[in-house]
Design goal:
alpha+beta, Sufe protein. Chain: A, 37% helix, 3 strands, 5 helices, binds FE2/S2 (inorganic) cluster, globular
């Protein structure tokens, strides 16, 4: 029997109408992460000036929870310093969506990790890295 996964209205909305989705041509920090278990991936594009995240977009190739999590994360970090954004956790993202089902909590991780990788690249003075 297939178990039903219950999403909040907000999660469904962000999965169906993702905010800030798409590549950013003039991003100066990019982070890409794949989940080795399911193969889903997220790319975060940041435009950072003086340590402030001026703009952010994302591309997620994956499940609805990953799309919704990555999308709402972009709204959470826009205007924040890279330090504030780096400290955000997957729990904060899940809370912002009104909660995620236990077995989908891990889906909020790739957005956070992609953002942290982008910030690490920014701090290292590179746009993107291959690791
Ligand atoms: Fe892969 Fe959700 S199942 S990120």
């Amino acid at each position: 029997m297939v178990e039903q996964v219950k999403f909040t209205e907000k999660t469904i909305d962000y999965a169906k109408n993702p905010r800030n989705q798409g590549e950013m041509a003039d991003a100066n920090a990019i982070g890409e992460v794949s989940n080795p278990d399911c193969g889903d991936s997220t790319v975060m594009y940041l435009k950072v000036e003086n340590d402030i995240i001026q703009d952010v977009t994302f591309e997620t190739f994956g499940c609805a929870a990953a799309v919704a999590s990555s999308s709402i994360l972009t709204e959470m970090i826009k205007g924040k310093t890279v330090e504030e954004a780096y400290k955000l956790t997957e729990e904060a993202v899940a809370d912002e969506l009104g909660g995620l089902p236990e077995k989908k909590l891990h889906c909020s991780v790739i957005g956070i990790e992609a953002m942290r990788k982008a910030i690490a690249n920014y701090r290292n003075g590179v746009v993107r890295s291959d690791d």
